[in-house]
Write a structure and sequence with these properties.
Strand order of the largest sheet: 1-2
CATH topology: DNA polymerase, domain 1
Shape: elongated
GO molecular function: DNA binding
Helix content: over 70%
Strand content: under 5%
Oligomer: single chain
Organism: Helianthus annuus (Common sunflower)
Number of domains: 1
Order of helices and strands: HHHEEHHHHH
Low-confidence stretches: none
Pfam families: ARID (PF01388)
Protein name: Transcription factor & chromatin remodeling ARID family
CATH architecture: Orthogonal Bundle
Length: about 140
């Protein structure tokens, strides 16, 4: 899977919805997830200065896929920030509690806009599908 347009990112994020799939193909998905982030940062945001893979303050590699799935599982960025759960997220993905604020920062730097854009595009797609269904129904009703 290569990334040439945002729909490629959307396809990968849709696949990651399935926890069993993620566990089974984690190594491959981790690589693709980083490729997706790299593509999004460069092509959509024109940011070329964020290194991948990401590293914690102690120079340990942070698996952004793990960070993404942990945040998603706990209700998303806003909920975790509101309830001050970043320390728990850090612990859940193998870091000390004191790395919580750093995990929040990494999420904001690498994932926040990507996930916002994904949700926006997904919602836009659903609205478009509803409009298409309505158009078909309206055209059938006008024929009768």
């Amino acid at each position: 899977m290569s990334f040439k347009e945002f729909n490629d990112c959307k396809a990968l994020l849709d696949m990651i919805d399935d926890d069993e799939y993620v566990m089974k193909y984690k190594h491959h998905l981790e690589t693709k997830f980083n490729d997706m982030i790299d593509w999004f940062l460069k092509e959509k945001l024109e940011i070329y200065t964020r290194p991948l893979p990401a590293y914690a303050s102690d120079n340990r590699k942070v698996c952004l896929l793990d960070l993404y799935t942990a945040v998603k599982r706990e209700g998303g960025h806003r909920r975790i920030t509101k309830n001050n759960l970043w320390a728990m997220i850090a612990k859940e993905i193998g870091f000390d509690y004191n790395e919580g604020e750093y995990m929040r920062l990494l999420y904001a730097m690498y994932l926040d806009v990507l996930i916002y854009y994904y949700k926006y595009k997904s919602t836009q797609e659903k609205v478009q599908e509803k409009e298409e269904v309505k158009t078909v129904v309206d055209s059938r009703q006008s024929r009768s």
